[in-house]
């Protein structure tokens, strides 16, 4: 019996073309591959049209930093949309929480703890996360337990929290931020330098290989079908190459000359003739986003909560009948979304070195677009964290590229809008083709 | 005459009523079930069979009536409560989470975990392969979301989920609707096996031929009311058909409030 199935499997495998066989062996997600391909096309096109300005370490590094805050929020938006909800309020929550964190660190704590106290950033961030969680809990409670549609609750939230952000300081901009807090925003100081970047890159490579090896051992233990060994080796190689390539790019972007000079003076280093090359390395906001992405992927795929989120999105009635506390799951998703908004607010406030009243305006649309371009289905039940983060990079690439090409803002908006619609249309074609 | 005389029924549903916006979907219906017994719940489409058992499985809140398990009043407010009493249900709609795979469906709400508290997908898949092998030996598509499976395969998944957790009371709402003759026969064997283990089974169908040979008793519903119950050895198929179609109770049956 099992021999017969093995034979038919083999027969079927030989019917497939080389590409299909490759994809079957590696179990790669074709949709994700398509998206990465599209991203690379966008990058190459912008590189050509901007006269070689796009694919430079400087631009790619900035792109990574600019994508970070929306990428963080997009990971939560995936869970929201997977359960057939929506969150229109994330930009306003970001604005409000950013304002709270700014006031705490710039106006309240320095008076109590002393200016530059190393605890300031910790307290400000913790307070922001608490406020974000509380806002998310409120939204989640109204949606899950009072039965008001998420669209309405978060549309209300969009107005309420934007207005609330204004009330905190009556519209005044708060600046500057605490020096330690500012590291969340990137910049020459907010990056970890060449050595640490290589170390983290190597750790990531070891982790990739370990995960692949462990998965294989697990499947061996239970005698399940396995990927061919060459496919495993291919995945490990590509994964490590991407990680090390990204580190290499981040390490190829030097500090600006002025900052190098000041740094050299402060540490009494002589600057050689050719100039002193000090690399940025990976930016801290990018590291934060990556850690958030890993944690969220873990939550989505390895915990019962994540399992329930997807089950609920696929068939809410079935989830309820299986005994899942669907309301509580929904509320937890919105709490998580609030926490992620707070983390995004920290990144964005630190990067601006200020909290302004308009901060995060329209971010809800970028976040939703990132999740949807990243393969999250508005019909519910389908979506990946990694896809949404790549979606955030796609959105940011479009904007950065058009800025480099000197397009006006209104034209940028037109292009982004059209791209979003086309992307979702292509996605629906893909899904129909697969079904 | 009554083989169960003196025994405590596993389940007693007494005077159950529920209405949806003025429609009495179930109207003062009573039925009971003994350990190791198969009760066939019969009636036309829309008679109220699914609604009645959904009260038992915790999916619907009744307006009236009492449920007793082992002779003691049971409080069932949601599907979790019902599962707590060992009640497992195969819903007519199957109620599968379409976008996750077979193992995730079998263990939905009761996942196996590793010592670190994370999902133990490998262990769940291993156990799923074992249980599915019993029902549908040719089934191999363990990695696919269940929405990509055939109707028969989906039904097998729903049945496997119900027998995975040592049910004491099994509710099967039209369990063979999507199955071919071979799989239907397999489910018949399964029912006999479970019955021998002392599990009480409600077997629901609108078609008398599906249940008559498997059931110890039949309970017939019409327009939300119980026409009557009868031991299958005391009545003929034609008499039961008369109960289903006309609501006419033959001499061998115990009439209910819905009898003519
Ligand atoms: N959730 C519901 N809302 C409104 N009406 C319902 C609902 N569930 C069942 N009904 C009605 O109750 C009656 C009995 O349905 P059902 O129990 O599904 O019948 P059966 O399973 O015997 O075919 C039907 O008239 C049906 O329309
Ligand atoms: Mg029914």
From TrEMBL, chain A:
Record field: transmembrane: 32-54, 60-81, 93-113, 119-143, 150-169, 189-212, 233-255, 275-300, 333-354, 366-395, 407-426
Species this chain originates from: Oricola cellulosilytica
Keywords for the protein's UniProt record, in alphabetical order: Cell inner membrane, Cell membrane, Membrane, Sugar transport, Transmembrane, Transmembrane helix, Transport
Localization, UniProt: Cell membrane
One Pfam family in the UniProt entry: BPD_transp_2
One cellular component (GO) term of this entry: plasma membrane
Protein name listed in UniProt: Xylose transport system permease protein XylH
Annotated InterPro entries: ABC_transp_permease
Membrane topology: Multi-pass membrane protein
Role summary: Part of the binding-protein-dependent transport system for D-xylose. Probably responsible for the translocation of the substrate across the membrane.
Listed GO MF terms: transmembrane transporter activity
């Amino acid at each position: 019996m099992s021999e017969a199935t093995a034979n038919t499997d083999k027969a079927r495998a030989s019917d497939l073309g080389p590409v299909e066989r490759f994809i079957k062996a590696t179990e790669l997600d074709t949709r994700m591959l398509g998206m990465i391909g599209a991203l690379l096309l966008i990058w190459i096109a912008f590189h050509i049209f901007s006269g070689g300005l796009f694919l430079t370490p400087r631009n790619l590094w900035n792109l990574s930093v600019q994508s970070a805050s929306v990428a963080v929020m997009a990971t939560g938006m995936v869970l929201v949309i997977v359960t057939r909800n929506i969150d229109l309020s994330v930009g306003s929550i970001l604005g409000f929480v950013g304002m709270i964190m700014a006031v705490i660190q710039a106006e309240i704590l320095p008076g109590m703890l002393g200016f530059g106290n190393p605890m300031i950033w910790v307290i400000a961030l913790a307070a922001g996360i608490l406020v974000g969680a509380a806002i998310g809990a409120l939204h989640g409670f109204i949606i899950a337990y009072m039965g008001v549609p998420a669209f309405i609750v978060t549309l209300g939230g969009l107005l309420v929290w934007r207005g609330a952000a204004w009330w905190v300081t009556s519209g005044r901009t708060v600046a500057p931020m605490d020096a330690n807090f500012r590291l969340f925003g990137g910049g020459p100081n907010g990056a970890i330098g060449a050595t640490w970047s290589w170390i983290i890159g190597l750790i990531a490579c070891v982790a990739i290989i370990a995960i692949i090896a462990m998965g294989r051992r697990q499947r061996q233990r239970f005698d399940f079908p396995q990927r061919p060994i060459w496919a495993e080796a291919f995945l490990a190689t590509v994964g490590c190459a991407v990680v090390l390539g990204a580190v290499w790019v981040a390490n190829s972007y030097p500090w600006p000359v002025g900052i190098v000079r000041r740094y050299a003076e402060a540490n009494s280093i002589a600057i050689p003739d050719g100039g002193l090359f000090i690399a940025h390395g990976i930016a801290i906001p990018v590291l934060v986003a990556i850690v958030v992405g890993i944690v969220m992927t873990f939550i989505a795929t390895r915990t019962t909560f994540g399992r329930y989120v997807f089950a609920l999105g696929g068939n809410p009635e079935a989830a309820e009948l299986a005994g899942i506390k669907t309301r509580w799951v929904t509320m937890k998703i919105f709490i998580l979304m609030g926490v992620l908004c707070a983390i995004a607010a920290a990144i964005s406030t630190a990067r601006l070195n200020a909290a302004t009243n308009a901060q995060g305006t329209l971010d809800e649309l970028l976040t939703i677009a990132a999740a949807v371009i990243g393969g999250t289905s508005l019909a519910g039940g389908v979506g990946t964290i990694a896809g949404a983060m790549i979606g955030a990079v796609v959105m940011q690439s479009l904007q950065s590229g058009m800025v480099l090409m000197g397009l006006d803002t209104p034209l940028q908006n037109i292009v982004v809008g059209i791209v979003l619609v086309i992307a979702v249309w292509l996605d629906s074609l893909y899904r129909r083709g697969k079904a | 005459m009554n083989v169960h005389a003196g025994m405590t029924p596993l389940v007693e549903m007494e005077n159950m009523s529920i209405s949806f916006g003025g429609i009495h979907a179930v109207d003062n219906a009573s039925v009971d079930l003994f350990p190791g017994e198969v009760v066939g719940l019969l009636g036309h489409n829309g008679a109220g069979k699914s609604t009645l058992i959904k009260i038992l499985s915790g999916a619907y809140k009744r307006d009236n009536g009492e449920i007793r398990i082992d002779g003691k009043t049971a409080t069932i407010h949601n599907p979790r409560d019902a599962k707590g009493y060992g009640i497992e249900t195969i819903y007519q709609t199957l109620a599968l989470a379409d976008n996750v795979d077979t193992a995730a469906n079998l263990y939905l709400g009761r996942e196996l975990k590793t010592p670190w508290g994370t999902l133990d997908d490998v262990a769940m898949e291993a156990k799923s392969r074992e249980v599915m092998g019993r029902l549908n030996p040719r089934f191999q598509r363990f990695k696919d979301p269940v929405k990509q499976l055939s109707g028969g395969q989906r039904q097998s998944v729903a049945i496997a989920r119900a027998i995975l957790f040592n049910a004491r009371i099994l509710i099967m709402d039209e369990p063979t609707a999507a199955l071919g003759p071979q799989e239907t026969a397999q489910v018949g064997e399964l029912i006999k096996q479970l019955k021998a283990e002392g599990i009480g089974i409600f077997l629901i169908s609108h078609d008398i031929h599906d249940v008559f040979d498997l059931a110890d008793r039949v309970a017939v519903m019409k327009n939300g009311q119980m026409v009557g119950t009868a031991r299958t050895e005391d009545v003929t198929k034609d008499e039961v058909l008369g109960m289903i179609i006309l609501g006419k109770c033959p001499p061998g049956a115990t009439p209910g409030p819905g009898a003519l």
